Amino acid sequence: MQIDKLKHQHADILARLAALRQLTHAGVAPNAPAIAAGIVGMSAVIKLHLAVEDQALYPALQRSHDADMAHMGQLYQDEMAQLAEAYDGFVRRWNTAQRLRADTEGFRADANDVLRRLHARMQRENREFYPRIEALA
Q: Domain Hemerythrin-like: where (predicted)?
C-alpha cells in the first residue's frame, strides 16, 4: 500500500503546527491574522488528509488479509473520528483574527489541548502505524 502522500501531508501539517506555535509564542493578539490564516490553511490540508484516510486507507486495511492490521486500522479510524470532531470545533472557534483577539487565553488553552493531541497522533502514526502499513507491501 502506497502511503507516501499521507506521509508528505503529515510533514506539511507538522510544519504548519510549528509555525502556529511560533506565532502564538510571539503573541496571539499581534499575530491574530496570521494565526487565523494558518488555522484555515492547515484545516484544508487536514480535511484532505482525513478524506484520503477514510476513503482509501482504512477501507484497504479492512480488506487486508492481515487481521491485526485490519483491527489496528479500525482502532486508528475510531480514535481519529473523535480527534477530528475536536479539531473541527477548534477551527470553528478560532478561524478569525477577531475571535483570537477577543479571547487569547481561551485560544491558548484550546490550542494546547487540541493541537497537542493532533501532533501526538501524527507522531504515533509516523512511528507505529505507517511503518506497519509499509511492511504489508
A: 3-133
Long-range contacts, 46-53 (Cβ 8 Å, 24+): 46/13, 46/84, 46/87, 46/118, 48/9, 49/6, 49/9, 49/10, 49/13, 50/80, 50/84, 52/5, 52/6, 52/9, 53/6, 53/77, 53/80
> What are the structural domain ranges in the chain?
4-136
Confidence (pLDDT) at 136: 83
Q: Is 107 exposed, middle or buried (0-12, 13-18, 19+ CB in 10 A)?
A: buried
Question: Residue 91 has which C-alpha cell?
Answer: 477551527
pLDDT tens per residue across span 7-47: 999 999 999 999 999 999 999 999 999 999 999 999 999 99
CA diameter of the chain: 53
Q: Which of 24, 44, 134, 37 is nearest to 87 (CA)?
A: 44
Q: Residue 81 burial by CB count (10 A; 0-12/13-18/19+): exposed, middle or buried?
A: exposed
